[in-house]
Amino acid sequence: MNFLNRIAILGLIAAASFAADIDGKWKGSAPGRGGQTMEYNLDFKADGNKLTGSMSSQMGSSEITDGKVDGASVEFKVKREFNGNAFIMNYKGKVEGDDLKLAITVEGRDMAARELTAKRVK
Description:
Elements: H1 3-19, E1 24-31, E2 37-47, E3 50-57, E4 60-70, E5 73-82, E6 85-96, E7 99-106, E8 114-120
């Protein structure tokens, strides 16, 4: 195996192990409607670049879908229902050690993003 192949393999191993840094439970909060704070519990599992898991808040519990991890970047979707109306919430952000910062937007709605900040539960 030549030197460049070894470097490439080490890079892939490092990227895969860094992507797995999101695994586990996280607890955080984000500003809600009317100024109240929404509390979130997140449970993630990364398998390569694929991210699965669940999220719960005062709005209930949901499985995450379309989850992706690319290095420190994370994104996923959650389907929610409120007053009989279904909508998709998009979460996109970065993991920095035991800190997770996500921008929350709602598909199809022109609203400013809210920020969810979470810490890894140890």
